[in-house]
Amino acid sequence: MHLTSKVIGTEISLFEQKFAEAIHSNLPLLQPMTGYLISNKGKQIRPVFSLLCAKMGGEVNERSYLAAIVVEMLHTASLLHDDIIDESMERRGKPSVNAVWNNKPALFLGDIISLQALLLTLTNKEHNILRIYATAIGHIIDGEILQLRHTFRVNLNESIYFKIITGKTSAFFAAACEAGASTTFTDEISVQAFHRFGKTAGIAFQLKDDMFDYGNSDVGKPVRNDIKDRKVTLPLIYTLNSVNRKLRNELIKLIKLKDKTPEMISFIIEEVRKAGGLQYTTDKMLRYRDDAMAILHSFPGNDIRLALEEQVRYITDREF
Fold first, then answer.
1. CA-CA distances (angstroms) from residue 4 to 160, 174, 289, 309, 311?
2. Which one has a higher pLDDT value, 93 or 122?
3. Which of 37, 176, 198, 318 is the most exposed place for a label (fewest CB within 10 A)?
């Protein structure tokens, strides 16, 4: 991330300070938990996108930092809740918060961070940023409900799948880019272009994420969870629609099993690979990546735009 560091290295350092202050709690129960979150920080992709989009329109300002802080707080809270729902004991290569402190404190922390994020926008009278993120939260909830409705259904089609990930994942990317751009751009056309850019890049991000379940790399979180939990993602959707009826029925039978042996999981993964499910998903991901790049190219070429292109390539080339 050489170019990104060159363009907004100072801003990222200041963001990290402000973010740590924003999620700090004086409550004795929460202090060690928030400290644990800060020490086990993630890639912070969404705030980086937000700050870069802001800088495309002018100098990063306090409103820009607020947009970046709020999206990272909301994302952090969503991960806390996801780990509880998924019963995940690992996050970023370390024990998850719920693994260390149990579910109730982790749930409480997620709720508190979400509330603090929204209150930040109100206390700073940033009603437009609040509107952007509140709208995104609504889309995320819609995506979660849609996924819940289709959990364990093996006849999920591509259209439903993309509706789910557009809500669950790309909504935050879109909101981060839109909110950041709104703090420096004065024309709504540019702001909405960055919304579309974030939405498209976010879909590419999720497509890459879904392929990790079928790989062998250590990605810092449990793999095979989608297969174990009977979640049908694009590699499997494509496979089920491509193989012969006998193999399709065999795969469906295995997918529906609650308790799968390692051999069963390996068989599913191998058939997805043989059928071209990973290649198909990769091709879709690259198409969304290129669409995101095309939106960027409607703006003047400079180091900031190149840094955004670097970020898009990172989320599609990453190995974790």
1. 35, 19, 18, 10, 8
2. 122
3. 318
* Terminal Cα distance for the chain, rounded: 15
Looking up residue 301, the CATH number of its domain turns out to be 1.10.600.10
Angle between helices 103-123 and 62-85 (to 10 degrees): 160
* 99: its two tokens: 């693994």
Q: Which of 133, 114, 14 is nearest to 65 (CA)?
A: 14
The pLDDT value recorded for residue 126 is 96
7 burial (CB, 10 Å; 0-12 / 13-18 / 19+) is buried
In whole angstroms, give the CA distance from residue 124 to residue 85: 33
In the numeric block, the tokens 């409705």 are attached to 149
DSSP one-letter string for 107-156: HHHHHHHHHHHHHHHHHTT-HHHHHHHHHHHHHHHHHHHHHHHTTT-TT-
Would you call 186 exposed, middle or buried from its count of C-beta atoms within 10 A (0-12, 13-18, 19+)? exposed
- Cα(212)–Cα(264) distance, integer angstroms: 18
Q: How many domains does the chain have?
A: 1
- Mean pLDDT value across residues 173-187: 98
Q: CB of 180 within 8 A of CB of 67?
A: yes
Half-sphere exposure (Cβ direction) of 110: Cα atoms closer than 13 Å: 21
Domain extent for 43: 2-317
pTM for the whole structure:
0.92
